[in-house]
């Protein structure tokens, strides 16, 4: 079983009861916040090491760091092979800051996208723009439906039901 499968079974699996899951996520969010605070202090530094070394660096266990890597993977310039990742797999954290902020908003992780470290990385205008862009991406805009008795949009002059709406 891969590290990612272990993490997902622990965090989302049926074998874990709700109270245990709540405790797992509570602890995970605390560690995750600490990791992001550390990374965002030096965002230009690309971290290259093994999964085990990264866990040691941030003083956490392998499963928690696997969950972190699963979450940040979409925000990296070059994603890591998290599906087949092992403890000795070399990983690289080359973060795209705008994508990371956008993904934090998408995940509704206000404890992460409101970190004070963002103030020196992205100006307030850019953060607001990314926030609005993400929120708009989830909004469904319905197109105006053509009524049966409306004029056909093809321009024939006939009613829609006798023209293109006949099929």
Average pLDDT works out at 89
Question: Mind summarizing the main beta sheet?
Answer: 2 strands, antiparallel
* Order of neighbouring strands in the sheet with most strands: 1-2
Number of distinct helices? 8
Order of helices and strands: HHEHHEHHHH
- What value does the Rg take, in angstroms? 23 Å
Domain module tally: 1
Count the beta strands: 2
Low-confidence stretches: none
Distance from N terminus to C terminus (CA atoms, Å) equals 53 Å
Spatial shape: elongated
Describe the structure in your own words:
The protein has 167 residues and is mainly alpha-helical. It has one domain (3-122). 50% of the residues lie in helices and 5% in strands. It has 8 helices and 2 strands, in the order H-H-E-H-H-E-H-H-H-H. The chain has helices at 3-12, 18-41, 51-57, 62-72, 97-106, 110-113, 118-121, 124-137; strands at residues 47-50, 90-93. Strands 1-2 form a two-stranded antiparallel sheet. The mean pLDDT is 89.
């Amino acid at each position: 079983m891969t590290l990612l499968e272990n993490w997902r079974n622990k965090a989302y699996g049926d074998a874990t009861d709700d109270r245990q899951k709540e405790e797992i996520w509570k602890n995970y969010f605390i560690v995750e916040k600490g990791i992001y605070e550390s990374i965002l202090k030096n965002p230009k530094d690309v971290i290259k090491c093994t999964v085990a070394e990264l866990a040691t660096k941030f003083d956490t266990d392998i499963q928690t760091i696997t969950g972190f890597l699963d979450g940040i993977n979409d925000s990296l310039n070059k994603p890591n092979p998290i599906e087949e990742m092992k403890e000795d797999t070399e990983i690289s954290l080359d973060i795209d800051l705008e994508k990371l902020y956008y993904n934090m908003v998408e995940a509704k992780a206000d404890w992460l996208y409101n970190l004070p470290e963002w103030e020196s990385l992205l100006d307030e205008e850019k953060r607001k723009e990314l926030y609005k862009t993400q929120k708009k991406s989830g909004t469904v805009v319905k197109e105006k439906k053509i009524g049966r008795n409306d004029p056909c949009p093809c321009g024939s002059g006939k009613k829609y039901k006798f023209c293109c709406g006949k099929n």
